[in-house]
Design brief:
Layout (H helix, E strand, L loop, with lengths): L3 H24 L15 H7 L3 H10 L1
The chain binds zinc ion.
Zinc ion (ZN) binds next to helix 3.
């Protein structure tokens, strides 16, 4: 069952995602390997590694 607060939280997350994407594209935040703007949830990984979550994870596995 979905409560109203859950809907608002999801909506809020969507807004944050969009705001992040606008910001990231303007600042040219892109994964060094695939050139994709990292998703909002992976921005911390991006700032640490310069890679999207997927590629940061892939490189860490090889290490
Ligand atoms: Zn990538």
């Amino acid at each position: 069952m979905v409560t109203e607060s859950e809907v608002q939280t999801k909506d809020d997350l969507e807004r944050r995602n969009k705001a992040w994407k606008h910001c990231a594209e303007r600042e040219d935040y892109r994964c060094a390997i695939c050139g994709q703007v990292p998703p909002y949830g992976e921005r911390e990984i991006y700032f640490e590694s310069g890679l999207c979550g997927f590629h940061a994870h892939t490189l860490n596995k090889d290490d």
